[in-house]
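User: Could you walk me through two proteins back to back? I'd like the raw sequence and the structure tokens for each, with a short line separating them so I can tell where one ends and the next begins.

Assistant: Of course. Protein one, sequence then structure:
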Amino acid sequence: MLNMSNQKIKTIGELKSSGYRSKTVKEELRDNLVEKLKKKEKIFEGIKAYDETVIPDLERAILSRHSVLLLGLRGQAKTRIARLMTNLLDEYIPVVKGSELNDDPFNPLSRHAKDIIALHGDQTEIEWLHRDERYTEKLATPDVSVADLIGDVDPIKAANLKLPYSDERVIHFGLIPRSHRGIFVINELPDLQARIQVALFNILQEGDIQIRGFKLRLPLDIQFIFTANPEDYTNRGSIVTPLKDRIESQILTHYPKDISTSKEITLQEAKISAEQKANIKSFELIENLLEQISFEARSNEFIDPKSGVSARLAISGYENLFSTAERRMLINNESYTAIRILDFWGVIPSITGKIELVYEGEQEGSSIVAQNLISKAIRTRFTEYFPDPEKMKRKKEANPYREITDWFGAGNEVDLLNDVSEKQYASALQSVPGLDDVVKKFFPKTKGEEKLVLMEFLLHGLAEYSLLSKNTLVSGLRFKDLFSSVFQDRGMKEEE
């Protein structure tokens, strides 16, 4: 790779004198990867959860000079990985000035470039193309045509140049030829019509293209990367077998396998303003609960597992948590607040737009399914913070929750409203005897807003384990004794 002070090189003659050697794009990617691996440099910055799985597979594919198919459910960073591949390209490469196919000065491809070199020889001007300009991405949709990808005859060009349609100079090249010496990505490959997929056969195998009746062979130099969702194979379309056979490496992507990695991705990707970070406090409990929602959704009976649950659920959910808390802060004319468990009602729109429901889920309704996911997340994470209520039921004397449940059993109740001030929120929680003591017992060093959030979490957890009743109000929740709630509901039904 040339030092790019060599951008001063302006002609083919100067390029020859510099000792420049042409390489294919796959050799370029391979050589730069080899150097980075030797130096133990991070190659795919910002990609989490794939260090032991996807990344090694991708590196092997690059070393093997393979075209790649990234196969996985939505929200698994497939497109992001493809875009980061540009980091393995040389920073600049020389091209014949004015060529539309990024022609290599030593191996020109287009008729235009060949004619210029034939005319000017070593005095042919060159220009330098940055690696970011060597990346092309196309979303496969049913309306994509062969002309879009490969090219077609341009009648206007033929008329302007006064050339017959049999002259190759009248061809308007598509996206793929224009990606010569670069990376070309087709996202959601199964959405491409079968006849369009067939048009890619020769490009992948022999590296040439066919446009209408032209006897034209263009040995294109392209690193192809395809992405696909396995669900597409049965839902909208499929990758035709001969094309799949020509893609040398198929790499399976996956969701993060643990909460901590999933949380890293969310914190990295969520767009939280500096002002929000300064005025709104989030806690580990809140972040863990949010990630747990995604994990619950991926195994939920009402959600289609083949569709997947994107990492974007937690990312947009985290942004909504801050916005929900910020809105409450502004309404109450406060300058500071902390995210509460109650603020998860603001995450519901982030959930409903990110899940595909099966028939039973449609019957329940997306909003109800979203609320159930939040409830299950609370139940799952509860025992990491407090003793398992199921076990405590059998140990009445040692039951740390007894004072709380007895207070509710005496007919007391507490309302936690969504948009109340910090003072009203604290007052409501502190009105429940025993709540403060339990939190203090298991988290003796915790104070302030975090202590209040743990107190609220304790109420939610006891409700999820059926020690309390949790009823939805118009603008919040009401906690009361489970049995009195059941009897009250039954009495209302009998009156009706």
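----
Protein two, same layout:
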Amino acid sequence: MPNSKVTTLGDLRRAVERGDIPRRSVHEEVRQNLIRKLRAGETLFPGIVGYDETVVPQLVNALLSRHNFILLGLRGQAKTRLLRALVTLLDDDIPVMPGCEINDDPLAPICGACRTRVATEGDGTPVAWLPRETRYVEKLATPDVTIADMVGDIDPIKAARSALQLSSELTMHYGLLPRANRGIFAVNELPDLAGKIQVGLFNILQEGDVQIKGYPVRLPLDVLMAFTANPEDYTARGKIITPLKDRIGSEIRTHYPAGRAEGMTITAQEAWLTRHESSLPAEVPAFVAEIVEEIAFQARQDRRIDKRSGVSQRLPISAIENVVSNAERRALITDEPVVVPRVTDIYAALPSITGKFEMEYEGELKGAEAIACELIRAAVANVADGYLGHLETRQVLEWFDLGGSLQLTDSTSAEDLLARTREVQGLTELTQAAGIPADASAPLLASGVDFVLEGLYAMKKIGRDDDRGYHATDTPVRRPAREAVLPDEMSMPAGDGKKKYYN
């Protein structure tokens, strides 16, 4: 029977007896829907990349086992997204008592008000339908969360308005956990909950019920519990209560992308790169996307950056958005038809990088911006070596060795950049190795040229000063102009009181 035709308790009872509407717990509901998706070969968690062989199988096992579980991982490892994706494993909607704060089952209500209503109205009791999106309740754990927030407490105002005794069950104020009844309740950063709040979760995890303060009544809630935590906090003494850990069925470890390709897929999926307001199409060269992603990998292995804090996947996402914005700014100023980021634009994205990692003592001494610049250079060197490392660069290097130099900035237009670099023999051929065709648009060619120059600098084959002046690595440092020297002074022996000059 379609849900639209089930409007009363009597209709619901008959539909359940015929088997048209199933009655099952949340754990069983998730399990059966998961089994159906597995048999059909459907994607279980859309948008989750890189976990197919690691995290997802463990999570599936936990759900098939009807476990409450916890996801352990550093920041930016899609823990919250995984939790919210669990909603797709719920039924489209379920029957509930209309107006009930805890989504009571009309066939087996647990709150006093709903039981009284069913006893009074019988099969004519109205039935409402709750969509699955509203059956997910999420709470960020903070030290100021109280047991009343999570479980509930006495509501004196409700008692006064209804002329009820405080001991009456009808004066309860339900917390988030009872309000998640017949759904999923997720707690982010579980160790941040105060110890007494963690104790308050014992019953729901083991016995499946909660006791609200001051009431001799238990509510047998039907809830799937899921948590997230940082591994260091979860295993640290005093952060998490051992009996609570013992009651969590499965402990699942998340991780950062295993390779650059996985990271690029996530970044492309999450980053905002389509800028409709400027009416300029954006084209991000592959090498720019690789370098931005490589920055995160370099940061995660840098000894000056705190490994316990981690380097979130939000770093490359924010960085690539800033990189495209700098390219967009240049395109608007120079009236270029397309937005094409360059490697130089990555240095302009430092504000989106420096705040994404915590530093150790050595890093703090050097400064976040200096370390970020070093990470970018290391990332450029790593990526450029893959594109250019096997190629002959002698012609370009000789041009610089013979005294050639280039002065470029991130605001140099594509046409101007190509005009300045046209005389460098072999430079255009190297851009083709980076995947830039010879007949590409000027902004794309300029991005390729910029990549080659920055790549050669990062690989220490040419030099570059702070204001983007490229030159040979052995270019002598310019000295102040020396005084004019008379011929007879140059011939005088040293130590006679006259100045000695050396060329």
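Residues 314-334 form the longest helix (21 residues).

Let me know if you want the two compared in more detail.
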